[in-house]
Amino acid sequence: MNYFTKTLSACLVASVALSAPAFSATPPTMLVVGLSMNNILTLDPAAITGKETVQVLANIYDNLVSLDPVNRSQVNPQLAASWTVSPDKTAITFKMKDGLTFASGNPITSADVVWSFKRLMSLNLAQASFLKTHGFTAANADASFTAPDANTFVITLPKKVDPEIIVLTLGIVGPGSIYDSKTVIANEKNGDQGAAWLTNHSAGSGPYVLNEWRSNERAILDRNEKYWGEAPAMKRIMMRHLAESQSQRLMLEKGDIDIAFSMSAADLKAMEANKEVRTETIGGSGFYYLATSMKDEKFSKPKVREALRYLIDYQGLNETILPYFGKPRDRPIPNGIFGALPDAGYKLDVAKAKALLAEAGYPNGFKTTLRALSDAPFLNLATALQATLAQGGIQAEIITGSGDQIYGAMRERKFELLVGRGGGGQLPHPDSNLRAIVYNPNNSDESKLTNFQGWRTSFFDEKLNAMIDAALIESNKDAQIKQYGDIQTYYADLVPAIQPFSEVVDSVGMRADIKGLALNPSWSTQLRTVTKDR
Amino acid sequence: MSYDRTAAFMRQAGTIFVTLIGLLILTFCIGRLMPVDPVRAVVGEEADRATYEMVAERMGVNLPLHQQFFRYVGDIVQGDFGVSIRTGQPVINDIAHVMPATIELATFAIIGGAGLGIPLGILAAVRRNRPIDHVIRFLTLIGHSMPIFWTGMIGLIIFYAALDLVGGGGRISDYYIGLVPETTGFMLIDAMLAGDWEVFGDAVNHLILPASILGYSSMAYITRMTRSFMLDQLNQEYVITARVKGLSKSRTVWHHAFANIRVQLVTIVALAYGSLLEGAVLIETVFSWPGFGQYITNNMLIGDMNAVMTCVLLVGVIFIALNLLSDALYKIFDPRTR
Fold first, then answer.
1. What is the DSSP string of A299-348?
2. CB within 8 Å of A445: residues ≥ 6 apart
3. How far, in Å, CA of B122 to CA of B231, rounded?
4. With 80 as the cut, is the pLDDT of residue B79 above it?
5. Looking at domain A285-505, what is its CATH homologous superfamily?
6. H or E segment at A149?
7. Is A17 exposed, middle or buried (0-12, 13-18, 19+ CB in 10 A)?
8. How far apart are CA A376 and CA A265, in angstroms?
9. Which residue has the higher pLDDT, A403 or A35?
């Protein structure tokens, strides 16, 4: 053996000898969570976008109330002990729980609550839209959010709206998160209200505090020893950035992570036979849908849109492409939300679609484009839809791309057909879905109401807008439920520009010995109740 | 003579400056022409027009392109590389954090790649058309052809999941995070400085597979180039003369032929190392390695031009530095260039 070979062999042996054996199984008091952190740009609740950030912050910040993970209409007290709505439904008064403190040790008072909401409105970032929708602004914040005493917080509604939706909004992580105002103010820079500091620090009262956040690497949450509620079993939560679903699966099956939040359907399916792991699925937020642009002459015709309705293979799409991430739904309000009607029961019916197209003046079909994100499952959905559209004579060319390319075209109203996902739903109230997917207050190009999918699709109906507005302020619950039912029926009759075919569900992989994990459809899953049976 | 040296230095400095400015202009133009919207990344899909416009003004993206560019260049001249949209931190801090992870990975990869690639290339050339040559060429063909992210996943499935020989994603097991102070950012060095050999072993355990895969990919390229250079030399008359004069085969190969290809090898190894430093994004993604490749790619995907431009500048500086190092090594290895 020559000198070179001897040296090489020695190096190989040394590297193996020096390397420690791979450490399997997470420590019993540390929960390790794998998720993709690509969309986490900040941990300031007022500025966040996306589900993943909510999943982190749900464990750090408290709200006045929390949304029940099982009964979507139920709101539970959190920092507030109770609340009452004024007889004229213009104000909601919250009584705070006594003696609670933030992680810093500062007492939680109504002044912190007022400060948190005023900050939310004055920064006017992503999360402010939840309250802006109901007339709250930075200008009226002083009048809207008041604290008559240290234990009482009053929210005065700027315009007539169902107080229930406001209470539900306060349970959303982000707009409803309550900050330790003293701590944030102490870290303010150049009048930014602590925005820079809160990017990677926390000032909450939740069961955990943020120890460290490294973008696209990890977030470490340590147990808040001053937590006012029942102490969590896990001393530390390690949230690891694992962009690849297969990596999450391998590490979950090996026991190097306990929970995997961002796995693909293929990997979840591959894990089915493994007894050491399991999958839980829960309702999510929004819908998968086929959208048409009514600016296009073809799709402005109701019969053409109705034909599209019958060229979607609802069952096939849900069974073959969307297991774990969607379940059949053809109404604009998801199951489980009050007022939701049963499915209309649309099915793939090529003959009916062809007849409708012929009536509309397209007996031989036509050519069009179908946009979809290049990520799963959108491209697969687009491919399947292309096939069923073709059966009806519609030749759809698929255009794929990133979010900016696909939804950008939608925001500019420069598309024909699009497979997308959206439609509100983080807030468990029918108005959240209808406002996002149906409502369009101003159909002019100049209004640029890109936050309304109705505007993006140029779908506009004054009567429908009025019905949605009226339902929101209806004070009689039974009447309100009937109104939402009427909206869904009328919406179906109009043959809308957005046809849902699946409502979003979320699936999470976890080790079989994980107990106490209650997934929340509004993304705010609390990890404080998790234990490991080992 | 002094005047000639000064002139040469000025010419080189000018070339470097023009190269870097050209890089910045090209990157900026591509970044702004790409269909990515950094404002949308910050405000989210559901934001209304007022929020969008407010953030766009704050980020300066509604200014004319040339103003945006000059503003950026003006800032970096003053040492301000801006703040990353993705992390909210100064870009220079981010790079200082991610660069050691990539240097560690790339360095081990190139040690393996060059350490194996050069001898294998020489062996293949010396044993041309023999079975060992075919085996080596087959192995290098595989290294060139297999998509590296696929190799990475297969490596994880076999060596991590099935055989339990190496660590999974990340630089270190979760259990060890925070146990050694982060002095240099190089996990192995920090562990050694802290005297924590358990952490050192765990870090090696996590490094070995991604570095091996990257190294294999580099090795494929270096082996083929080395073989090609060596074959060129072995066909020269001086080699035949040396053998006829009674010199042993190994002395002829190593002391004569190899000496004449060192200069070329320096170039290809330097280029390979530079590529590893800036282009290992796929392996970094598969192995959740928080390195430079992932950083620059993720920032490109949301149009964070502060971060992208700074990274491009850094990559330009790295390649220029590697070229200068190659030039210096030429002078050592080949006296004719002095």
1. GGSHHHHHHHHTT--HHHIIIII-TTTEEE--SSS-TTSTTPPPP-----
2. A413
3. 8
4. yes
5. Dipeptide-binding Protein; Domain 3 (3.10.105.10)
6. strand A145-149
7. exposed
8. 9
9. A35
Span B9-20, mean pLDDT? 85
3-class secondary-structure state, position A514: strand
pLDDT tier at B338, thresholds 50, 70, 90 = low
Contact of A478 with A261, CB cutoff 8 Å: no
Query: What three-state secondary structure class fits A506?
Result: strand
Please give the Cα distance from B103 to B108 (Å, whole number).
Answer: 8
Whole-number Cα distances in Å, A134 to A75, A158, A165, A358, A467: 19, 7, 9, 44, 16
Compute how many other C-beta atoms are within 10 angstroms of the C-beta atom of residue A260.
29
The answer to whether the CB atoms of B51 and A126 lie below 8 A apart is yes
Domain ranges, ordered by start, for chain A: 30-229+512-532, 285-505
Q: Amino acid letter at B120?
A: L
Residue A398 phi/psi, 5-degree rounding, is -85, 130
Task: For residue A17, name the pLDDT band (cuts at 50, 70, 90).
Answer: very low
Q: Which of A530, A37, A260 is nearest to B168 (CA)?
A: A260
Q: Residue A207: phi, psi to the nearest 5?
A: -65, -15
What pLDDT was estimated at residue A484? 97
Distance of alpha carbon B227 from alpha carbon B138, whole angstroms: 13
The amino acid sitting at B114 is A
User: Tokens 């049976």, residue?
Assistant: A533
**Placement of tokens 């993304």 in the chain:** A523
Q: Does B116 touch chain A (CB under 8 A)?
A: yes
pLDDT digits (tens, 9 = 90+) for A35-82: 999 889 999 999 998 899 999 999 999 999 999 999 888 999 999 999
Q: What is the pLDDT of residues A306-323, one digit of tens each?
A: 999 999 999 999 999 999
Q: What is the mean pLDDT of chain B?
A: 88
- Nearest CB among A21, A124, A214 relative to B51 is that of A124
Instruction: Indicate the fold that domain A30-229+512-532 takes in CATH.
Output: D-Maltodextrin-Binding Protein; domain 2 (3.40.190)
Two structure tokens written together for B253: 């190969």
Q: Residue A61's closest CA among A80, A49, A72, A45?
A: A45
Say yes or no: B42 contacts chain A, CB-CB below 8 A. Answer: yes
DSSP A446: G
The whole-angstrom separation of Cα B335 and Cα B1 is 19
Provide the 10 A C-beta neighbour count for residue A99: 8
Q: Do B156 and A250 touch (CB under 8 A)?
A: yes
Residue with tokens 């509100």: A424
The beta-carbon neighbor of A126 closest among B47, B50, B286 is B47
Residues 200-219 of A with CB under 8 A from B: 200, 214-218
Q: Which residue has the tokens 């971060």?
A: B307
In the chain, the amino acid numbered B166 is V
Whether A38 and B55 lie within 8 Å, measured CB to CB: no
For A448-495, the DSSP string reads: --TT-HHHHTT---HHHHHHHHHHHH---HHHHHHHHHHHHHHHHHH-
> Which amino acid type is present at position B64?
P
- Residues above pLDDT 70, as percent of chain A: 96
The proportion of chain B whose per-residue pLDDT surpasses 90, expressed as a percent, equals 43
DSSP B103-154: HHHHHHHHHHHHHHHHHHHHHHHHTTTSHHHHHHHHHHHHHHHS-HHHHHHH
Pairwise CA distance, residues A357 & A351, whole Å: 10
CA nearest neighbour of A100 among A67, A74, A76, A77: A77
pLDDT band at B337 (very low <50, low <70, confident <90, very high): low
Chain A, 271 to 290: residues with Cβ < 8 Å from chain B are: none
| Percent with pLDDT over 90 in chain A | 87
> What's the rounded Cα separation, in Å, for the pair B176 and A138?
46
- The pLDDT assigned to A213 comes to 94
Average pLDDT on A506-511 reads 95
Instruction: Please give the CATH architecture assigned to the domain spanning B93-337.
Output: Orthogonal Bundle (1.10)
